[in-house]
Amino acid sequence: MTRSLVEEPLTGGQNLLIGLRTWSTAMGLENQAKRTNGISGLGPDEYAAQVRERYASGQTPWDTGVPSPELIRVIEQGDFEGKTVLEFGCGSGTNSIELARRGFSVTAVDLVELPIQRAKEKAQRAGVRIDFRVGDFTRIDLGGPYDCLFDSSVYDGIRNRDLSGFLRALQNVSRPGTRWLSLAGSAREPTSAGPPVVREEEFRSELGGLFRFLEVREFRFDIGPNFQPLAWSILMERK
Description:
Blueprint: E1 3-5, H1 14-27, H2 33-36, H3 44-57, H4 69-76, E2 84-88, H5 94-101, E3 105-110, H6 113-126, E4 130-134, E5 148-152, H7 155-173, E6 179-186, E7 197-198, H8 200-207, E8 211-220, E9 230-238
Parallel strand pairs: 1-8, 2-3, 2-5, 3-4, 5-6, 6-7
Antiparallel strand pairs: 6-9, 8-9
């Protein structure tokens, strides 16, 4: 049975608009926002080049350095079952390190080299062991199957570039019973910038063939004091 909690979205406000402008400016793609919803609509090579540029310049508002409260909530309520976890789109490793600290055996992958280099340094300082990889989630061999999967704003972007390849990759790294927590931008609060967004009927249609939905709720990404975009927390289990 799906547990569902959908909050009423905010309806604008000066702080939210300032935050959206900050995200858009940081991405350097204001003129593409409506056409591509940020970098999510770019081709694979162009997308990778843009991500490398953002990390090199420090313009990475999505990489906050704070573990996701929503991930922690799901873990602490006992819904992340098993020992092995794969995080795809791990960035500089903040959530992977939190998972490892909590006793999970973690494999983490990101598309570009610089955040993985930083993630390895952070993991060493934290005293945890994580198998970090560099590569395209839809193409790299990541082994598995894993007990749990986690992503924060990967599905919502890649669905616009290569949904079929993404679904094949999910099938390769999971098995019946694998849990997946996906955090994705919510289209219930329209934006012209910020993270990519998806409607509930879209993710249910796109992901429901492989996964059953255990919990669907809305929360807010905490990007900064003036920017908390509405998002989906989607907890699933592989059929």
